[in-house]
Write a structure and sequence with these properties.
The chain is mainly α. The protein has one domain. It contains 6 helices and no strands. The protein is flat and about 60 Å long.
């Protein structure tokens, strides 16, 4: 731990209760805003990717990508909600979101018209959104 991190930790411990509540509320609001920005960016990237896949690769590939992207949005939302509860009502991150990629693979294997690779790529579209958002946050 660096000296500045130690100083921040000590100042946080020295805060009175109302200040800690206000700080917690501010952090929660900031986290909610970050969540909304990443979800929006993921939706925009997914729409662009589905349109490009529809033009260049065909209907079924774009549908597979869309289903994967929607699964990725659901996964990210469940994970963010679980992380948001961390420390308030929960001591660990929930594992419910882990069922989403499993269900995606089962769904694509069940229906012959869906393709696995575009579905998985669509599912992973939330990752570039996180990188882009981190870049925008670091450049501020």
């Amino acid at each position: 731990m660096s000296k500045s991190e130690n100083a921040m930790l000590e100042s946080d411990l020295a805060m009175d209760q109302p200040s800690q509540v206000l700080l917690h509320q501010a952090c929660s609001e900031e986290y909610d805003q970050l969540q909304k920005r990443v979800l929006f960016l993921t939706a925009v990237l997914s729409a662009i990717a589905v349109a490009i896949a529809g033009i260049f690769f065909g209907f079924y590939t774009s549908i597979s990508l869309l289903i994967g992207a929607l699964s990725g949005l659901l996964y990210f939302r469940l994970l963010a909600r679980s992380i948001g509860k961390l420390g308030k009502t929960s001591k660990t991150v929930g594992k419910v979101q882990m069922a989403v990629p499993v269900l995606l693979v089962v769904l694509t294997s069940r229906f012959s018209s869906l393709e696995l690779l575009p579905s998985i790529l669509g599912f992973l579209l939330y990752k570039p959104s996180l990188v882009i958002q981190a870049y925008f946050d670091s450049s501020k």
